[in-house]
Amino acid sequence: MPAALRLPSSRRLVGAVAGCLLTEAAWASAYAVGVPVPKVLALLLVPAAMGLAALTALAAARTPGLGPGGARFWRQLTVCILLTGIGATIMGQARLNPDTPNALRIIQVSAPALVLGIGLAMYALLRLPVRAQSRGEWVRLGLDGLTVLITTALFLWHLALRPMVERHTDVRLALGLLMLATTCLVALVAVMKVVLLGSGPISPRSMRLLASAILAGGLGSAVSPLIASPRLVGLQPMITLFEALLVACAAHAQTRPVPEPAAAARTRAYSKLPYFAVAATSLLLAAVAYGDHAGVGPVATGAIAVSAVVGLRQLVALRDNAQLLTSVRRHEQRLRYQASHDALTTLVNRAHFTELLDAALTTATRPVAVLLIDLDDFKLINDTLGHAVGDEVLITVAERLRRAVRHDDVVARLGGDEFAMLLHDVDDAHAVDVAGRIRDTLGTPIHTAGHDLLVHASVGVATSASGDRLDTLLRNADLAMYAAKERGKGGHFVYVPGMTTRIVAHAELGAQLRDAIELGQLFLLYQPIVRLDDGRTTATEALVRWRHPERGVVPPCDFIPAAEQTGLIVALGRWVLREACRQQARWLRDLGDDAPQSVSVNVAGRQLTDPQFVADVVAALDDAGLDARRLTLEVTETAVLDRAEAIAALHALRGLRVKLALDDFGTAASSLGLLLTCPVTSLKLDRTFVDGITTVARQEAVATAVIRMAQALELSAVAEGIETEAQARMLRGLGYRFGQGYLYARPLAPHDVAALSAPVLIGRRSSI
Question: Which ranges carry the EAL domain (predicted)?
Answer without folding.
Answer: 506-761
